[in-house]
Design a protein that fits this description.
There is one protein chain. The protein has about 350 residues and is mainly beta. The chain has a single domain, classed as Porin (Beta Barrel). The protein is about 10% helix and about 50% strand. The chain has a 14-stranded antiparallel barrel with strand order 1-2-3-4-6-7-8-9-10-11-12-13-14-15. Strand 5 and strand 6 form a beta hairpin. About 35% of the residues are buried.
């Protein structure tokens, strides 16, 4: 077979192979991520379960690298509620990620619990835990190997494929500390380091550490209607296996519209395969209407994939309901710092006060 014919065969398969190796290779496999990480609060941290004063429904859809056929498509939905008599929050989360022409599918379902500890009149601490079920599945009938095209007959690569799906149980723990002006949290995921290989080779999900935080730099509050304008900054740093990732940026709110810009990468302190580690610049715009908040973000890819990937689109929707007004007097917990409904409200004297909560 001529070299040109071999290239024509390889070209449509290279992205499928890249996606397959990325998720099965223990040295390169990483978790999915959202650019609007505060719009997917339960994925960011179990401590954010029950972070409002009532119930919250959050949905996110991400189309990553639309310039590549059937790259990554991720959907997430979560529901959480704060139970004031027990000072606790409970949340549930469902995520599904699809990639490649062979429908490589990752499904994640999690149950979360958090407990609010009042340290002082201004500082709160919220530990959280998570138990999760995960599975990966692949449609082997859609896989085409190079030796099938070059030679004749079945591919010898089929002998290595042990399972069309894998299932596992996993755990996570987190902590969040905050005041009206600052917040910081740490999430440790994949505590069980479960196996997830299709090849039966003992490939495990590496433990993931996520450090996040931010600050309310400037806020204005209307006398009767709460926060009107604000400017804040936030970050998320993630470490998994040998890979590090930093998202950092700013958010400006002029109710009901908010705008955000942040950068993903570590160009100074980290390199990947001798290349500068920088990924994307993310632009955000969202609109709040009553209990609803709708957001859209676009990743402007600045890495070597810029020409082929076409960035990433992400949509989010948050709906808060059954909120208990008596718990919002003087402030509320910072769950989604880029929106006025989630930033802590500050009273006229700039003092954060909150009714005491009892367990029973």
């Amino acid at each position: 077979m001529e070299r040109k014919q071999l290239f024509d065969i390889w070209k449509p398969l290279r992205w499928m192979l890249l996606l397959f190796l990325t998720i099965t290779d223990p040295a390169k496999g990483q978790d999915l991520h959202f650019s609007q990480f505060y719009a997917a609060p339960l994925y960011l941290s179990p401590s954010l379960a029950g972070a409002t004063d009532g119930a919250r429904l959050a949905m996110t859809y991400r189309n990553q690298w639309p310039g590549i056929t059937k790259a990554f498509s991720t959907s997430a939905v979560s529901f959480d509620n704060f139970f004031a008599p027990f000072n606790s929050g409970i949340g549930i989360q469902l995520i599904q990620d699809r990639a490649g022409s062979a429908n490589l599918t990752f499904t994640h379902a999690a149950l979360q619990y958090s407990y609010n500890v009042r340290l002082t009149d201004e500082w709160q601490f919220v530990p959280g835990i998570q138990v999760a079920y995960g599975s990966r599945a692949l449609d082997f009938s859609k896989l085409i190997f190079g030796d099938e095209q070059i030679g004749s007959g079945a591919s010898g690569s089929w002998d290595r494929l042990a399972n069309e799906s894998t299932e596992f149980t996993d755990f996570a723990a987190s902590g969040l500390i905050y005041s009206p002006y600052f917040w910081a949290g740490l999430t440790i995921d994949h505590l069980a380091e479960p196996e997830h290989s299709f090849l039966g080779e003992g490939v495990q999900l590496n433990r993931k550490y996520v450090l996040f935080g931010g600050a309310n730099i400037w806020t204005e509050k209307r006398k009767r209607f709460g926060l009107d304008r604000s400017f804040s900054t936030s970050f998320r740093f993630q470490h998994q296996n040998s890979y590090n990732q930093l998202d950092a940026g700013f958010y400006w709110l002029n109710s009901p519209i908010e705008l955000g810009i942040w950068y993903r990468g570590l160009p100074i302190f980290s390199k990947v395969d001798s290349r500068i580690n920088h990924d994307a610049v993310i632009l955000l715009m969202s609109y709040k209407y009553g209990p609803f908040r709708v957001g859209y973000s676009y990743d402007i890819t600045v890495s070597n994939l810029a020409l082929q990937s076409a960035g990433a689109h992400e949509l989010s929707l948050i709906f808060e309901f059954n909120q208990q007004a008596q718990l919002r007097i003087g402030g509320r917990r910072p769950a989604v710092p880029c929106s006025d409904s989630a930033n802590p409200l500050i009273n006229e004297n700039k003092k954060y006060s909150r009714p005491s909560r009892r367990i029973f």
